Amino acid sequence: MKPTAVLLCGLPYSGKTALATSLALEGYVIISLNEINRARGLGLHGNSVPGGEWLETHRIANERMREFLAQGRNVVWDDTNYAAWIRDPVFDAALDAGAEPVWVWVDTPIDEIRRRADGRYPTEDLEKLIRDFEKPCCAIRLDGKQPIDVALQPLRRAMGKGVLG
């Protein structure tokens, strides 16, 4: 049986990390681009990550994902993945690594995103992501305003149908 790569997308503060943490309790390994950036000393104290640094962050994340998938481990990719040009290579990398990849869109109302992010995320960066976010065409949609156990129900139904490992 192939390992599963749950690939999260959604705006900052939509609830992606909470969902990833819940999946980690079931044995999924979290690939968090925010954590990679923090370990690299980037994005600290409310500062933006310089645009040129994201290529290296993605390289590190892809390498980790390939390693875990090669070991037969399920992974959850925790990042905004706000545009198709970012999402497509992540999906392809998971597929090339032998996984069953699935996109999960954590859809949270914009007013709730702004409330959660208030004072914790650079406003200009957030507003740019809100403007530029491309809703995925092919993803399991989860309601990021719901409690985690409720929000995960569509994903669990997909898992129960053999879509996920």
Automatic annotation (TrEMBL):
Pfam families: AAA_33 (PF13671). The keyword Kinase applies. The keyword Transferase applies. Keywords: Kinase, Transferase. GO terms for molecular function: kinase activity. It comes from the Bacteria. This is Phosphoryl Seryl-TRNA(Ser/Sec) Kinase.
